[in-house]
Structure formats: structure tokens, C-alpha cells
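Crash report, auto-generated. Payload:
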Amino acid sequence: EVQLLESGGGLVQPGGSLRLSCAASGFTFSSYGMNWVRQAPGKGLEWVSAISGGGNSKQYADSVKGRFTMSRDNSKNTLYLQMNPLRAEDTAVYYCAKAAAGNWYSDLWGRGTLVTVSS
Amino acid sequence: EIVMTQSPATLSVSPGERATLSCRASQSVGSNLAWYQQKPGQAPRLLIYGASTRATGVAARFSGSGSGTEFTLSISSLQSEDFAVYYCQQYNDWPLTFGGGTKVEIK
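Recovered output after restart:
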């Protein structure tokens, strides 16, 4: 079955760090770019970052640039998002999403993991 | 950054009626425009890419049109399962950006 499964969310204090993971299955992981998209409670979707299939090209939203690092381990079919330092405004459900072949829209989404930044 | 503006914010429609949602880009994105559907508590689902191509498994009552800066998502005859929030997204340039969403609710 083609699926994405995020993990690693939780409650963290402002200034703290967290690493999200996204396990992919059912497709050739290394052949596709991947996105992280977040959604603050009751708000719309916000693209966070993207990484190419080989992992050598990355893009970030200005809101997270310099604080978040996206990476992937193609041998483990796993995507990561290292987040630090975290701010209250980073509180959101974080979705990993597979990019379509040759494009950057997302044709497969995980169920998301909730990150809460609060003291 | 390309700003995506969706209208209206909320659309009240009766089942069986047609719904028309708009999305405007602050600069041309060509046909690099996608539409997603999101139901409460669920992840977004891809509906349309390339401005007008339905994703696999998407019902034929969903159609997309437009290019450049003006785009439309139409739902020809609303079914109960279509009441949701719809987002447009441009993927023509970095950063990727989403519209604020249109909530389609039961009238």
C-alpha cells in the first residue's frame, strides 16, 4: 500500500527542538521529491520545505529558514524535519507529502503529526 | 513570493447545485496550479493539477480551468461528501504558496 506515516510530534517548550520523521512505503522513495506542509490550529495550509529525490536540493519557507533542516535517508525510505529553535507560532499539524513526478504539487499526503510549542 | 487569493472564503450551496470557487495569483503561474480538498480531521487530498487535470480517482463532477493568474474550480452537482475546505496552490516558483481556502458548506 502506498502511504506516508509521520511521527515525532509532541509538546515542546519555546526554544526547544524536535525531529519529525516520515516513513514512506509502496513507492520508489528515492525517485520523488518530498514536501513538508503545516497547518496551524483552525488555519490554512502553509508549505514549509521541499527536498529533491536525491536530497541534494532543498527549499525552505522564509518563516523557517535557518531554523529547520529537511533531510532524507533513501536507504530507510524516511524523510526528516529537524526543527530548532521552535517558536509558539510553529504550533501546527505537520504533514509530509510526496511530490508528483517532475513537479512539486503533492499527490500523496500523510495523516500528519501535531507539534505544540508552549511553556 | 506569489500570493494566492481565494474567493469567497465561504460558499453556501444546496446539495445538487453547482459550486464555483476562484483562485487568483499575484503574478502568472502558467498552468502550475493545483487544487486540494480537505475534510475535518483529515489530510488534504489532491483533486486537480496542471490547472485542469483531475487526479486519479477524482470524480468527473470536479473540473478546473484557467491559466496565468485566474483559476476556477467547479463542482457540477454537489454531493454530501463534497462539503469541505478547498485550497489552491501554485508550484510555479519558490516558495510554494497556498491560497487561504474556501469552505463549501451546506445551505
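Post-recovery validation: Chain B has a mean pLDDT of 97.
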